[in-house]
Amino acid sequence: MSTSVAVIGCGNRGLQLARAILQAEGLSLAAVCDVDPNRLGAAMETLGVPGERDHQLLLARADVDAVLVATSARFHAAVTLDALAAHKHVYVEKPLADTPTVARQLARAAEQADVVAMVGYQRRFAPMARALAMEVPAIEPIQCTVVAQRGPMNAQFFFPDHYGGIVDNTTHALDQVLWSMGGRPEGVMGHVRRGSILGDGTIECMEVVIDFDGGRSASVISSMLGVGAANLNEYVGRLGNVWTTDGRTLHVTRHPAITEAGAKKPAGLEVREVTCSGGGGDGSVLALEHFAVRIAGAQAEGWPRGCSFAEGAAAIAVSAAMVQSAEEGRRVPLDEAQ
Fold first, then answer.
1. CA dist., res. 163 & res. 94, Å (int)
2. pLDDT (average), residues 272-290
3. Distances from the Cα of 256 to the Cα of 164, 248, 259, angstroms
4. Is 0.70 topped by the overall pTM?
């Protein structure tokens, strides 16, 4: 049986996700919603479904099982809280909310509502992320380095908040290292640079070190000035290493725990490569199909884990703590991030 979904927010990302719903097994697109009548009308015509300007009217409909929230981030929380109060399943575009405090409130509300609630970190479902999820836990990761360079982003991402600028893209990397490393993230040291392109407060370069329980750490370096620069995903663990520089070939080394000095090539060393290819694009269709599977009350074998609201709140806390750390010149415990 198909789950009927309404999309709230008909900007570029909302339309992309509405089209992904049309491709996803287990979901059907019931309606769209936007406060802007021009955007709403264009979406209704493009997608061939009815529309509403007031999301409350959609939430009152018995034939709408779930909503996909793709409004501007500052409206995510209000719309999502309304959806949870209406006992609708919710898929929210990242970031979950605009502050860590509100994101944590949403996580608690989702748990109390007893519905399926996911944050749209769709890159978890891309081939490379799925391979990392399979390989990294086995090496018992201690240290992680992610370099995510890209060119300038579009104008709508140029605003000074902790989730704007390059962070809007790099939040996927933050989410990746949080679930790949496992355990509890505890604190953040951060550095940001603003204003190199337009002279405004947009974060264009960022460096963050996240410390985890047990003395483990993850470093994420990113900018929108890195035209043509190399990228890296590297996990170093007690039992091996996992790394890639091209997002297509994963290099894996495994060995027993190193217990002696100078062991440049530990006994029992195994080296192999994992080729990551296949469909799924950016992972949106697979993420939505996973959402449908969750709503149906099943967990298909081999699926990655969709991002929970609690995990989405942790990613927001990291970016907020990074900015606070950069401003104050100190390590910021994650539970201090507001």
1. 9
2. 83
3. 42, 27, 9
4. yes
Render the burial of 14-53: b for 16+ CB within 10 Å, e for the rest: bbebbbbbeebebbebbbbbbeeeebbebbbeebebebbe
Over residues 275-282, the mean pLDDT reads: 70
Do β-strands 332-333 and 270-275 pair in parallel, antiparallel, or remain unpaired?
unpaired
Task: Report the alpha-carbon distance of residue 117 to residue 306 in Å, rounded.
Answer: 9
User: Which residues does residue 193 pair with via DSSP β-bridges, in sequence order?
Assistant: 205
* 203-to-141, 163, 169, 259, 310 alpha-carbon distances in Å: 29, 9, 11, 43, 25
What is the Cα Rg of the chain in Å?
A: 21
Alpha carbon 116 to chain centroid, angstroms: 17
Q: Which two tokens stand for residue 250?
A: 């994963």
- Distance (Å) of CA 295 to CA 115, 118, 140, 168: 8, 11, 32, 28
Taking Cα atoms as reference points, which of 322, 332, 293, 290 lies closest to residue 307? Answer: 290
CA distance 90 to 70: 11
Domains of the chain: 3-122+284-304 (3.40.50.720), 124-279+312-336 (3.30.360.10)
